[in-house]
Amino acid sequence: MTFAPASAINGVLASIPSPTISYFDIGPVRIHFYALCIIAGIIVATLMANHRLTKRGAEPWIIIDILLIAVPLAIICARIYHVLTHWSFYFGPGANPWTAFFIWEGGIAIYGALIGGAIGAYLGCRWTGIRFWTFADAVAPGLIIAQAMGRLGNYFNNELFGLPTNLPWGLQIQSTNPAFPAGLAPGTLFHPTFLYEMIWNLLGAAVILWAGHKFTMRWGRQFGLYLIWYSAGRIVWETIRIDPSDVFLGLRTNVWAAIFGVILGVVIMIVQKRRHTGLETSPYRPGRSWHNEAVQSGNTPEYVDVSEPGDDESAADVTSAVAAPAGR
């Protein structure tokens, strides 16, 4: 099969152009669009999670106390896993090991971020008294939206595109780009996998919000649904991406990570449904609480509903959450 250059493609939209710049300078400071997308995603996820936790009866902005631990650990683990799974990029022949620290050039693992973020969130929840699974459910839709926004950063970096295509929404990549596959004609278009994943993630946020309300999903089951939705899509996108990746037993490591993510999500949903037949009586762990004016005046906050004896979460409940795989 041959692939025509962009100028030869006919359609409503001939192609998607790639940005020619990925940063701008303010005096001596260089600002990368990739970093701005990540930061914007974190802000959106924080605002959504704060709203959802507050609605459940938690202290407003207690989410900040949790994220002070979770976000740094997520970024650190995301970068560490990326470097470990692309070892030759940084420590192979002719490579510069110092570039392993150049996170602003791209290269963070989403599943790696989930590992660090889950560990940090668990520690933050123990500190603040918030139930880990309540937090996980609250952050799930905002998290997948943040991931969609992060993929826009890959677009600005001209990276992580897919196989060549003649589709009218093919992505333009300059032939001078180091990631441009050798042997292909200049002007060849590629699948915009960043766009596919953005759309899939935004749909996933809508599904999580709808399912959480429709089926009153609590005790981490919304987070389990997030893992299933995101990972299922990731399996598909990874099959058409052409960026270098380590291969294990014939599959890219990211595919294995996504497969495990689906399995883990299913396990969380099944186990938590069986362990907890009622709803959380409070977003706080037993012995911890926050008394606002609504509670003191006798008004019933939304989170007070159906309860069950011994509804505290155990260490076993969160073991699976911090054992997720990683992959960019």
UniProtKB/TrEMBL annotation:
**PROSITE patterns per UniProt:** LGT
| Gene Ontology MF, one | transferase activity
Query: Kind of enzyme, top EC level?
Result: transferase
Q: Residue ranges of region Disordered?
A: 281-328
Which E.C. number(s) belong to this protein?
2.5.1.145
Give the membrane topology, semicolon-separated if more than one.
Multi-pass membrane protein
For the ligand (a 1,2-diacyl-sn-glycero-3-phospho-(1'-sn-glycerol)), the binding residues are: R151
Q: Which residues cross the membrane?
A: 31-49, 61-81, 101-125, 132-150, 194-211, 223-242, 254-271
Pfam families according to UniProt:
LGT (PF01790)
Q: List UniProt keywords, sorted A-Z.
A: Cell membrane, Membrane, Transferase, Transmembrane, Transmembrane helix
Subcellular location(s) of the protein: Cell membrane
**Pathway, according to UniProt?**
Protein modification; lipoprotein biosynthesis (diacylglyceryl transfer)
Point to the regions of Low complexity compositional bias.
Answer: 316-328
Under the heading PANTHER family, the entry gives:
PHOSPHATIDYLGLYCEROL--PROLIPOPROTEIN DIACYLGLYCERYL TRANSFERASE, PROLIPOPROTEIN DIACYLGLYCERYL TRANSFERASE
Function of the molecule: Catalyzes the transfer of the diacylglyceryl group from phosphatidylglycerol to the sulfhydryl group of the N-terminal cysteine of a prolipoprotein, the first step in the formation of mature lipoproteins.
Q: Which HAMAP family does the record match to this protein?
A: Lgt (MF_01147)
Family of this protein: Belongs to the Lgt family.
What is the protein named? Phosphatidylglycerol--prolipoprotein diacylglyceryl transferase
Species this chain originates from: Microbacterium kribbense
User: Source taxonomy lineage?
Assistant: Bacteria, Bacillati, Actinomycetota, Actinomycetes, Micrococcales
**What gene does this protein come from?**
lgt
